[in-house]
Design a protein that fits this description.
Layout: E1 15-16, E2 19-22, E3 25-28, E4 33-41, E5 48-55, H1 59-73, H2 85-100, H3 103-114, H4 118-146, E6 150-152, E7 155-163, E8 166-170, H5 178-189, E9 193-197, H6 210-216, E10 222-224, H7 229-238, E11 244-248, H8 251-260, E12 268-272, E13 277-281, H9 287-299, E14 309-315, H10 316-331, H11 353-366, E15 370-371, E16 379-380, E17 383-384, E18 387-390, H12 397-400, E19 407-413, H13 417-425, E20 428-429, E21 431-435, H14 439-449, E22 455-458, E23 474-475, E24 478-479, H15 484-490, E25 492-500, H16 503-515
Parallel strand pairs: 1-5, 8-9, 8-11, 9-10, 11-12, 13-14, 13-21, 14-19, 18-19, 21-22
Antiparallel strand pairs: 2-3, 4-5, 6-7, 7-25, 12-24, 15-18, 16-17, 20-23
Helix pairs in contact: 1-7, 2-4, 2-6, 3-4, 4-5, 5-15, 7-8, 9-10
The protein binds glyceraldehyde-3-phosphate.
């Protein structure tokens, strides 16, 4: 099924990574290592590929990382939280320029560690670099708006956004670079100090950046630890010293970590969690466009996206035509290794994922659903072909669970209240895709959908980007908002200096500005 010819540039060389970053120092580790095995095979007889290993750190290193982050924040007195905006930006620019030199290494590892196609891996890298620069630009704007005094009822105020403190950052395996950095970059730039633990997959690809983190920021601002979440993250939270939990991933881990923090009101949350985004297809939808968007929405990166279309509601009047075209399109998709030209479906990076998807299919078919596409459910070494399941009912696991993989549940409806009620009942509320053309039908739906989810995609698949738009969700899908702009707000708090409008106070303010003695009180306009 797979062409094993690997282009020279993409042949993996095992990486035995034996260091981590704490307090500005890249420390050596000679303890146990966690092996990294790719589900991609390099041989004709299927055999997973050994990619290398990374440190399996213990509670002790986790707490050292926390201490380093606390020391760098130093109760708000640290060099980083008190630094002028333009100086923090200079550090971030230095980091971004070093990061760009690692593109080839990171793109190659994205393919091997998580099976992402070459174009998508390149896009993930480039999009992340762009995210860093866009965040810097936005921060300049925030700073420009704050470069002034306000006066109201005889009180002068100089209002800025300040850091929150120590941030624990945990990202997901499907976007191990982009989503982790969408948390890390704004958190760091706003003056917080961070402890970052990469996801369960996509760990080696972070290692080429250790040096850039260490040399671009003051000691302890960024601390990077490797190992198991339960061993590292839980003890850090239990100390009660974390001010922000920034996590994109599973709500079970998020809940457990929140629970273990003893000071609930201190802990701010920035969370991106599960979603079950529906497509709702009206009878007057443009069929070809709808099929194209539903294929990419449900199956790009094998459906392993939080924004993926995870359930499709099709109106009875267009059902047969849609199912016929959609199932054909799914069977025509190309499966291949990530670097192979045109590979749309790629190996699943979690070795047990095909079995899980199989369980969902078996459960659904036992309860009356059929696999509509010929190739649906075909198993081979590291994959299971996307099964298009219809008719799906609410008692099926594939309806209830976030499948995060290649299986597509479809339901039909005659009354729009059916998908509306299901969305209202759902635990999730990230996005919806609405397909149709009649304005009079679409208008009331749009007006309702916007109150059930946080983005209504008209005649297009759900997606996070462009990153300047707000990315969030209702109910169990998210806490806080992550756009370029909103993330800077999510990782900061408004804080200000107020003084009564008296001659003596105003002289102090003028002297503070002219002497440039304070980094907070300043009216510099960053160009
Ligand atoms: O996994 C969730 C990602 O934020 C989805 O991003 O819509 O750009 O694929 P995307």
């Amino acid at each position: 099924m797979i062409n094993n010819k690997i282009p020279k540039d993409f042949v993996p060389q095992p990486i035995e990574h034996k260091s981590f970053l704490i307090g500005g120092q890249i420390k050596k580790w000679d303890g146990p290592q966690q092996e990294v095995i790719s589900t991609i095979s390099t041989t004709d007889d299927y055999k997973p590929t050994y990619l290398g290993s990374y440190p399996e750190l213990t509670k002790e290193e986790a707490l050292d990382a926390l201490d380093a982050a606390c020391k760098a924040y130093d109760m708000g007195k640290g060099v980083w939280p008190t630094m002028r905006t333009k100086d923090r930006i200079a550090c971030m620019e230095e980091f971004a320029s070093q990061m760009q030199t690692k593109r080839n290494e990171i793109v190659k590892l994205l393919m091997w560690e998580i099976g992402k196609s070459l174009p998508d891996s390149e896009k993930e890298f480039d999009r992340t670099v762009q995210y860093v620069y866009d965040t810097i630009e936005d921060y300049k704007n925030i700073d420009r708006d704050a470069a002034k005094f306000e006066q109201y009822e005889g009180v002068n105020a100089h209002i800025r956004r300040g850091p929150l403190g120590v941030v624990l950052c945990l990202g997901p395996y499907n976007y191990p670079l982009n989503e982790a950095f969408a948390l890390l970059i704004p958190a760091i730039l706003m003056g917080n100090t961070v402890i970052y633990k990469p996801a369960k997959l996509g760990v080696l690809l972070i290692t080429p950046l250790l040096e850039a983190f260490a040399s671009s920021f003051p000691a302890g601002v960024v601390n990077i630890v490797f190992g198991r979440g339960r061993v590292l993250a839980s003890p850090i939270m239990e100390t009660g010293k974390v001010d922000v939990l920034a996590l994109i991933g599973n709500s079970k881990s998020a809940n457990a970590l929140q629970e273990s923090h003893p000071k609930k009101n201190r802990l701010r949350l920035v969370l991106g969690l599960e979603a079950k985004n529906p497509a709702v297809i009206m009878p007057d939808a443009d069929l070809d466009l709808t099929v194209k968007e539903c294929v990419s929405g449900s199956l790009s990166f094998n459906g392993q996206r939080c924004t993926a279309l995870k359930v499709i509601y099709v109106h009875q009047d267009i059902r047969d035509a849609f199912l016929e075209k959609y199932t054909k399109a799914v069977d025509q998709l190309k499966f291949g290794n990530p670097w192979e030209e045109g590979s749309f479906l790629t190996p699943l990076p979690e070795a047990d994922k095909p079995d899980y998807i199989q369980e969902l299919i078996d459960d659904a078919t036992a309860k009356g659903a059929k696999i509509l596409n010929q190739k649906g459910g075909e198993r081979f070494d590291n994959y299971i072909w996307p099964a298009v399941l219809y008719p799906v009912t609410k008692d099926m696991r594939v309806y209830q669970e976030e499948q995060f993989g290649p299986v597509v549940p479809i339901l039909s409806f005659t009354d729009i209240e059916t998908p509306l009620n299901d969305m209202a009942e759902s635990n999730y509320g990230q996005q919806v895709s609405l397909f149709g053309s009649d304005v009079n039908t679409l208008a009331p739906l749009i007006d309702t959908f916007v109150n059930l989810v946080c983005r209504v995609n008209l005649n297009s698949a759900c997606q996070r980007g462009p990153d300047i738009y707000p990315f969030t969700g209702r109910k169990d899908s998210a806490v806080a908002t992550l756009s370029v702009h909103d993330a800077l707000r999510s990782f900061s708090i408004r804080t200000f200096v107020a003084s009564k409008d008296s001659e003596a106070n105003n002289k102090i303010l003028n002297d503070l500005i002219e002497s440039r003695a304070s980094n907070f009180i300043n009216t510099d306009y960053i160009l």
